[in-house]
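Recall from the previous chapter that SMILES is a line notation for molecules. Here it describes zinc ion.
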Amino acid sequence: MPLVPMRQILDEAAKGGYGVGAFNVNNMEQIQAIMEAANETNSPVIIQASRGALKYSRMIYLKKLMEAAVIEYPHIPVAMHLDHGNSIETLKQAIDLGFTSVMMDGSLAEDGKTPNTYEQNVAITKAAVELAHPLGVTVEGELGCLGGIEDGHGAGLSADEVSDHLTDPAQAEDFVAQTGLDALAVAIGTSHGAYKSGRKDPKTGETLPPALAMDRIHEIHKRMPNCHMVMHGSSSVPKELVDIINQYGGKMPGTFGIPVEQIQDGIRHGVRKINVDTDSRLAMTGAVRKVFFEKPEKFDPRDWLGPAREAAKQVYLQRMEAFGQAGHAGDYKPMSLDDMKKVYGR
Ligand SMILES: [Zn+2]
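With both inputs in hand, we obtain:
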């Protein structure tokens, strides 16, 4: 099965009332771990790469690894998605490379740091749709700004600033109508990376998990029941994974993520794509640290990359079950980009 347009995966998820994990990759072990988990749970899946990942893997390697993934598991629908595209030029590169979906993050300027105006965001997202849809490629846009910085991307907003940049539901409706995008990334108070909370208990000074504005998702879903929403920065940062890192010499104090229950609430209200990156990074890092600590005589990379791959796979298995995509790989006949071109042309 060739890579399928992400739009189809999201449309089917909406029909089935489930969400689909979008997992970030940089290398072979992560792709293999995702595909093994998708195969074991019979899940459709979205694999995504950021600009940083494309640079690290030097593009062509990632493309060939993705081709290998669909050859090995022909019964699994897989979309390959560009995460946080910053310009039309970057989208063109990704589409040329065979990506079936691209994100145009017009919430920020091309530098990936400065917030754009609403009008700038509408204009560039619309341009992305005009580029991608005639080729059958899916477009994700973003309205509002997330906290944190990852791979050099992000406005670096503080917790207080994040609350000023949440997605406005009325503006979201206008944004979707004006741009014609396929999926809308919403800002509801999540951040990229593992350090996700600036909230402190006023009495004890203890760090608290981030407060998410789930009501924004509920309201957007009420206004646009057919709009596919995307939650970014949605790793759960499980304590047990952080504990393994710290136990074997790491230093990650006071980290929080998004509880899976909150994501499931989002899925009941139109969230179809859930971006998870940090959790697999934590799992892999913990596994590598454990090998180095317990078996200092080991020097074959397979001795630590193998356990890292296995640890990441466990995270993917859990998320695929929790998001509800498990069991749905065989529900539909995958479309090609050519099929999707006709749908957009209607
Ligand atoms: Zn993101």
